[in-house]
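Predict the assembly for these two chains.
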Amino acid sequence: AQKVTQAQTEISVVEKEDVTLDCVYETRDTTYYLFWYKQPPSGELVFLIRRNSFDEQNEISGRYSWNFQKSTSSFNFTITASQVVDSAVYFCALSEPDGAGSYQLTFGKGTKLSVIP
Amino acid sequence: ETGVTQTPRHLVMGMTNKKSLKCEQHLGHNAMYWYKQSAKKPLELMFVYSLEERVENNSVPSRFSPECPNSSHLFLHLHTLQPEDSALYLCASSQAFLDSQYFGPGTRLTVT
């Protein structure tokens, strides 16, 4: 069984503050993928990152960074110097092979981030 | 037209109707996906096609029937739906299976 927990339902920050969105996952597989997606108020989902289980190197993309810690089964997402345009719902997801040649993909419930000007 | 397009954007249908959702990608990708997003449940991956073959076999009711006639088009055929099927249906595509996905704007479906 797999499970993705995004404990923070809603977060509000003031513009320019840093914010970290938590994601904790459960899996018994050694091979799996982790994802983050963004869904702004317009509703269109935006893919942010995919990370495989063998690559624990942290990644930075502009103001976005991701911290993958296998020891704690976490894949946290940090936005530095937040901006109003970062306001969105952010989803973490886990995919692992189902043993039949395909992958199951499970999403967390999402964290709604509001950046206040 | 670029990216991933979905039609219609909004659909209201009765439980006895048959309708189809259409998705088209103009990105030259080889994989296409259907997702369901409802207010009461987390985002769900329904179907995945890679090189026009279904690769994901989630537990989706048979009243949803996907079709992928070629790598650029994906359909979701709907029949005898239930009110709880009301949701936002999102289509996505990627170059390879589970690679970076590009999403369409979604079809907001209401079943009355």
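Chain A has a mean pLDDT of 91. The interface with chain B takes residues 33, 42-47, 50, 91, 93, 95, 100-110 of chain A (CB under 8 Å).
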